[in-house]
Amino acid sequence: MTYRFPVKSIRQLLEASHGTDAPQVTVNGWVRTVRTQKQRAFVQVADGSNPQGIQAVVSDPEMVKGLSTGASVRLQGSLVKSIGGNQAMELKASAITLLGASDPEKYPLHKAKLPLEHLRDHFHLRSRTRTFTAMWKLRNSAMQGFHEFFQSNDFIHVNTPIFTTNDCEGAGESFRVMTPESLANQSTATGTLKQQHQQHQQIKKDEFFDLPVSLTVSSQLHLEAMNAALPRVYTMGPAFRAEKSLSTRHLAEFWMLEAEAAFLTNLDDLLDLLEASVKATTSRVVAASADDLSVLAALPLATTGTSSHRTKEETQKLILSLSEAGPAFHRITYTEAIKILQSCGKTWTHPVDSWGASLQSEHERYLAEEYFKAPVFVTDYPASEKPFYMLDSADSEGNRGIHGGPTVACVDLLVPGIGEVAGGSLREHRLDGIQRKIQEKKMDMKGLDWYMDLRRYGAVPHGGFGLGFERYLMALSGMGNVRDVIPMPRWFGHCKY
Question: Which of 122, 384, 428, 438 is deepest in the core (most CB within 10 A)?
Fold first, then answer.
């Protein structure tokens, strides 16, 4: 059975008309503007289905009394060819029903153009602007694009948990999950040491779970468990990091695309997968969301204040470089990156005096924005800088040069204007190897025994990556602040809704 939703959108009505008059149609939406003249009135109505909405021409100005920006309405009338040059068709309205009024004196979005900073104070309302309607549709298109790519390449989408006992990144930046009872008991532990011990024992009884639980920082470990039976898996879901950052690139709650593939032995194969997924998705978005990209590209720089929104030309160039029409991503090793940074003549806030120095945001952006002026893969970082689960470069296939110390078969994807967008690695699949790495990093193996089982029973070489979805959207949209590419952003010190 073919289902058709009973209420047609403005886009559907316009497409069904094929540019010819259509009598007796009903338009539902929200008022953007109302203009009144002596003999007639014009109401611009939008429902988010197309960038421009539709203009309704009303022969009796009395019919628009009570209408103002933000009000919701139902209009009935005929679609006719427009005399004006701004639209092909318009609605000749014969009846208007006010569904929900909007007080023009109090409505925060009554102006046509508002700074993004102002809109961030009204997250619950900003979706009504053309800018953010386009942003959310672009987000939907990109998410659909990634799904299409992985489904077409025989990957299985799996759901991974949000509650977890593991921090696979090992940075200790996770949110602890506690019930009100256990939290209350924990905060009131007083008295002698013996009494405090008894109270802590009671806290354990009041815990909902039998082990300390956090919000997930990554789905990788759980994806690896699925990957032991399904050779190609991926997931798209939220991740949480208690990183006390106020930068324009960090959120406390964000979305990640993560993929794991079995039987990978060469890091270049993983880079090929990551690059192909980004390029295919970008090309799909360009084809499917041209109108939305145009709306975002037209965002005036003057309205963005401190947000470094890129110019239309910069964004178009970046989109091209991320699409199938652009050249292959550059590929260098960490060792080569250090040599570039040391010889470029720049003065760094974080010096790179020797091999083994951590690459900071300023280094990543220089490599992508100034040196290569394009997306670049950086591989084979020092083992001391990376998590325990990564395979040593020496144990992987492929020759990527001589390094200044032990490295791991890993990669970061750096993109101009943003920095790191994705990261991945080949995984250490041998039991003795993973145990050695855990000991070297002086980690507590408690709670990781199930992860060891994945190596005990039929382990295979494998690898995977995680891509920060919001950072990828920053590249497509030209937005300079990650808070403008997710509907309800949460960051350090802010969780308003």
Answer: 428
Q: What superfamily in CATH does domain 130-174+216-484 come from?
A: Bira Bifunctional Protein; Domain 2 (3.30.930.10)
Nearest residue to 365 (alpha-carbon basis) of 376, 356, 354, 357? 376
Residue range 20-60, pLDDT digits in tens: 888 899 999 999 999 999 999 999 999 999 999 999 999 99
The H or E element spanning position 15 is helix 10-17
pLDDT at site 304: 42
Cβ atoms of 89 and 39 within 8 Å: the answer is no
pTM: 0.92
Q: Distance between CA 448 and CA 438 in Å, rounded?
A: 10
pLDDT reported for residue 190: 57
Domain ranges across the chain: 10-107, 130-174+216-484
- Average pLDDT of the segment spanning 72-95: 92
Q: What homologous superfamily does CATH list for 10-107?
A: Nucleic acid-binding proteins (2.40.50.140)
Q: What pLDDT score does 428 carry?
A: 97
Pairing of strands 54-58, 89-100: parallel
One-character DSSP codes across 165-230? S--TT-S---PEE--HHHHHHHHT--SSHHHHHHHHHHHHHH-SSSS-EEE-S-SHHHHHHHHTTS
First to last CA, the chain: 40
In contact, 61 and 38? CB cutoff 8 Å = yes
252 closest CA partner among 474, 468, 489: 489
